[in-house]
Amino acid sequence: MKKNPTHLRRPSAPSSPAMSASHDPPFLRRYGSLFSAASEEEAPRRGKGGVLEECELPVIDLRVLREEAGSRTACSAETASASAEMASASSEWGFFQVVNHGVSGELLEEIREEQKRLFRVPFEKKERWTALNESYRWGNPTATSLDQLSWSEAFHVPLSNLGAHDDAEEFTSLREAMRKVASAMLELARILSAVLAENLGCRRHLFGENCSESTCFLRLNRYPPCPFSPNTMGLVPHTDSDFMTILHQDHVGGLQLMKDSKWVSIKPNPEALIVNIGDLFQAWSNDVYKSVQHRVMTNRKAERYSIAFFLCPSYDSVIGSCKEPSPYKRFTFKEFRAQVQEDVKATGYKVGLSRFLL
């Protein structure tokens, strides 16, 4: 008779001080039945596809590209090379890393410390909080299986709300750090999207016209230690419902993406920012650039932090295409989000772009 695997047994008591910390969400109390109901057959199904060795994403040096974007000088051979590398990575991987990106290390360290302080607020207070515009979320309220459970907590904040001061003054410095990071990442996203648009023969400033602080989001993520690691997901497999995402992660690791029908574990590089193509950019590029499925796996002992910036258009913006004909019908960002939410509510999973194929 096979023994019940450790990652599927519900512990009788928290297995580490971190699990008993008052600031951690009560994952076991809320979702314990999902672990209890899991069978040995479910474990390989949740990890289907296997995981390749740890890989490093393509690295793009933005120094010259940013300098020329600021001075509006003619494109040099070095810039053309970086642009071509970026376009190739966006097509082959859907992900790439950037260095010399213009977001200072001091600023990223500042918001990381503010982020840690924020998540150490007692869970009961975070859950009832109106701070940061009631943007706190954890787990998956509608999860009916472990496939749908994300062992993580987050604050998902519209940039337009960062100017509000309806919460305790103790987090004034957090808001200020978030505003500075959001501004820097918005500028970076505009540069990157302009380069990728130009590579397809389109106007450089298209995304700058449609994406602004009124439509974009900043998400602060924390992945608590998990006694069921490495088979529990910190974030379930998904693609991003935006044009582009810029991610800063710590040294812990856990990010994986789907490549060649297999999960690839991404080697963390705290000095770089990770950029990935979203659903809207794939549709707009007529599938030249790929919005790739990705996930985060938990760690048994270490907590993981990340900060994600989402470049989004206004809700009424029509997501057309760079060239006709397009494989997709025309739709607005609002229609896309509504369809995603409807699918998740009905099935527990995001369907995404295939819903809008002609």
TrEMBL record:
Residues 11-25 have a biased composition (Low complexity). SUPFAM superfamilies: Clavaminate synthase-like. Residues 1-25 are annotated as: Disordered. The keyword DNA-binding does not apply. It holds the Pfam family 2OG-FeII_Oxy. Gene3D superfamilies: B-lactam Antibiotic, Isopenicillin N Synthase, Chain. It comes from the Eukaryota. Its cofactor is L-ascorbate. Keywords: Iron, Metal-binding, Oxidoreductase. Residues 212-313 form the Fe2OG dioxygenase domain. The keyword NADP does not apply. Residues 1-10 have a biased composition (Basic residues). Transmembrane segments: none annotated. Belongs to the iron/ascorbate-dependent oxidoreductase family. This is Gibberellin 2-beta-dioxygenase 8. It comes from Platanthera guangdongensis.
